[in-house]
Amino acid sequence: MASSVARVFARGFHVSVRRHALTPFNMPAMSPTMTEGGIASWKKKEGESFAAGDVLLEIETDKATIDVEAQDDGILAKIIAADGSKGVPVGSIIGVIGEEGDDLSGAAELAKQAATQSSVPTSKEPEPSKKEASPLPPAPEAVQSTPKQEVPELQPGKRIFASPIAKKIALEKGIPLAKVKGTGPSGRIIREDVDNYKPAPAAASSTVSAAAQTPAAAPSSDYVDTLISNMRRTIGTRLTQSKQELPHYYLTVDVTMDKVMKLREVFNKTLSEKDQKLSVNDFIVKAVACALADVPEANSAWLGEVIRTYKKADISVAVATPSGLITPIIKDAGSKGLATISAETKALAKKARDGKLQPSEYQGGTFTISNLGMFGIDHFTAIINPPQSCILAVGSTQPKFVPAPEEERGFKIVQSMNVTLSSDHRTVDGAVGARWLAAFKGYLENPLTFML
Amino acid sequence: MYFCLQATRRAAPAFGANIFSRWTQRCQQIRRFSAETSTAQAIDSDHEIYVSTSINPYFNLSLEDWLFRHSPETKPLLLIYRDAPCVVIGRNQNPWTELNFPALRAANTPFLRRRSGGGAVYHDLGNTNFSIHLPRMSFDRHATGRLVLRAVQSLGIDAHLNDRNDICVGLEKVSGSAYKIVNKRAYHHGTMLLTTQLSALGDFLRPQAKNIITKGVASVRSPVCNLQKYAASAMHETFTSAVVAEFRKEYGITSELCTATESQGTAVDYIQRGMDELNTWEWAYGQTPSFTHTMAHAFPWGDVVAQINSKHGLILDVSLTAKNTRMGATFIKDLNRQCQALYTGQRYGHLRQNEAHPAATPLTRNLGNEWTEALRDVDEWLLRTTSAG
């Protein structure tokens, strides 16, 4: 798909992917724990355009006044939550944004839909209430449009006649062309057909009632739509950006975990009196920190003009929470013992799941570890969190047969764990990455060397 | 050279600005005759620790804002200042539901609206304000709260942080905090009661207006006390030193502190403009979120209930209902019509101070005597009830 887009751009066409791109603007979460806030004042008027970086509005939450900036250029098509609205839940719709050249008349319609369905407390003033709009005007449209869509499905294998632009838009939007009725010459599917096909699923998806943080989905037999929360949106943007901009490359190695397992057992016997328990992950964090001390190039960040090499290893540990992925940080892991690392990891993970992490606890970090071993994953490659340079993907530990001439049988069974290091080639060359991974393997296969 | 107070002043300046303008004018005059050099060097924003010698709240808030917007993005910054008696409300508060205007008027004490959120506080020379500026990415209000807490504890006081991040001793609050966050920077600023006149605090922060439903942010009231109650050594100088020391320790700052004087600061255009802006009706009152004020009065000719809707400090509409009135059936309709004409668009709390308004002159109507009387009664009553002085 990237190549076809490139080809289109090469031809000099302006392809507007989001042609009817009136998008809802949601109340942002200014911290992972924010649940609601007040709109202090909009800094742009309806119809006014803005550039990326402009302050769109000022919100107040918990004694802080915060400027909310625009991420991209656009036009403020409609303000839904007016100045002075209080208790606006994070994620609820507060306005409608469009792009330059968009038809903004649809904004009022979108605003009505949002007002009828959302639970945003709007002004108590005697304004003509938008809530009086008849419930879900798009719903009858959807019902009417679906009969049109009931086209005899093309038999598999038959060619689909569609214009190139229709094919492109359908591909981008994920619309199955087989289901679209063509109205062009000889029943050809043209762009309008693909665009008009949108309203059916789009209308159904707009029948979402926005709840506070985890918006509920529209019930339907075939699919469920969930409004994108701020966390999901952030994850999406950052990881896409990372994959697109960083030259990732991957190094993989199998680590023999027998000695770690034995040492862990021994330590846990001692620590069980204090009600503490070490996990394999704690050993991995420590080995990472030791290896980073040996190969500091892997503990660096590409900052545009300089490469910053950190002296301390602040390790971000990926934690899966119900609302998404977050990476609390264990600061200066190299100077901490296994027990400290263990206690901190547990405390941070608990805070992350409760949504109580402070920004300083998850922002920053110089290296990330992502462990999917507990899900039985053998091997995977992870996506680097910029501006970090590396991320270590850890798989599960499994017994493996290895040749062993010293054994009678000629082989032995070892506990083997696969790890894959994703590195940014701008800061970490292949040989450097390999050196780091070798150092890491060395430490983890001989955990007593942590003490050196 | 004459720095402050240009001649341009918009109509009806904010109450209290007059006091400071007169005060500053006097200071300027004194300075002109003093031996001090009158061409003050403008202050620069490259230091990390600032202590203001000015007690002009308009200056100190503008200095804070200027430092916030102009100091290097990645360096931590600390500012300490004290104000002459005044009341400061949060960015999105309603002064009428927060303050006691009659008391403020009687004591000639001004009120200001600051740029950060939160509630209303009283400043006087027994209160010291701190302001910690950090890059947004590393801003953590609990960390900065703990920094100030350690400074208080170093004075030998057993203080703690409550769940709203305010410093308390026992059950009483000694400090209130507010925050402002923009793209790259954030600040945590707050008060510290050392030797404040607590009776004045209680008096000024006791709103007199009743029956106002507001969208503004409400203050959270708490019992307060002075730090000096717990440690005789707690005063401006010792507290300032303690905070500076903790700040140096936390962020490893070794550079000299900068003493900011008002003449140095007002040489900076941004600061001067900021002081003027804080002084305008548009900022002090015009930033008030929407509210509805309902009031009732029994006149000899009937019982009237009036409801005033206001937004941004201006009256959107006035509606009246009357009971037990011996006036004719069309009386109340006409009264409403007259009031709409008179008051819509006027500044709530400053009725008839906006000379530009066409109905600024007192009522003259060629209605029957009774009606004119009634209208005048209502007018006087509304003026009295809403007047902010």
UniProtKB/TrEMBL annotation, chain A:
UniProt key word Transferase: yes
Comment on bound cofactor: Binds 1 lipoyl cofactor covalently.
GO molecular function terms noted in the UniProt entry: dihydrolipoyllysine-residue acetyltransferase activity
Annotated spans, Disordered: 109-157
The keyword Acyltransferase appears for this protein: yes
InterPro entries given in the database record: 2-oxoA_DH_lipoyl-BS (IPR003016), 2-oxoacid_DH_actylTfrase (IPR001078), Biotin_lipoyl (IPR000089), CAT-like_dom_sf (IPR023213), E2/Pdx1 (IPR045257), E3-bd_dom_sf (IPR036625), LAT1 (IPR006257), PSBD (IPR004167)
Stated role: The pyruvate dehydrogenase complex catalyzes the overall conversion of pyruvate to acetyl-CoA and CO(2).
Protein name: Acetyltransferase component of pyruvate dehydrogenase complex
Automatic annotation (TrEMBL), chain B:
CDD domains: LplA (cd16443)
Entry GO CC: mitochondrion
Domain of life: Eukaryota
GO BP, one annotated term: protein lipoylation
BPL/LPL catalytic domain ranges (all copies): 72-255
One Pfam entry name: LplA-B_cat
GO molecular-function term, one example from the UniProt record: lipoyltransferase activity
Record-linked InterPro entries: aa-tRNA-synth_II/BPL/LPL (IPR045864), BPL_LPL_catalytic (IPR004143), LipoylTrfase_LipoateP_Ligase (IPR004562)
Pathway field: Protein modification; protein lipoylation via exogenous pathway; protein N(6)-(lipoyl)lysine from lipoate: step 2/2
Family that this chain belongs to: Belongs to the LplA family.
Annotated NCBIfam families: lipoyltrans
Function, as annotated: Catalyzes both the ATP-dependent activation of exogenously supplied lipoate to lipoyl-AMP and the transfer of the activated lipoyl onto the lipoyl domains of lipoate-dependent enzymes.
Protein name as it appears in the record: Putative lipoate-protein ligase A
Organism field: Hypholoma sublateritium (strain FD-334 SS-4)
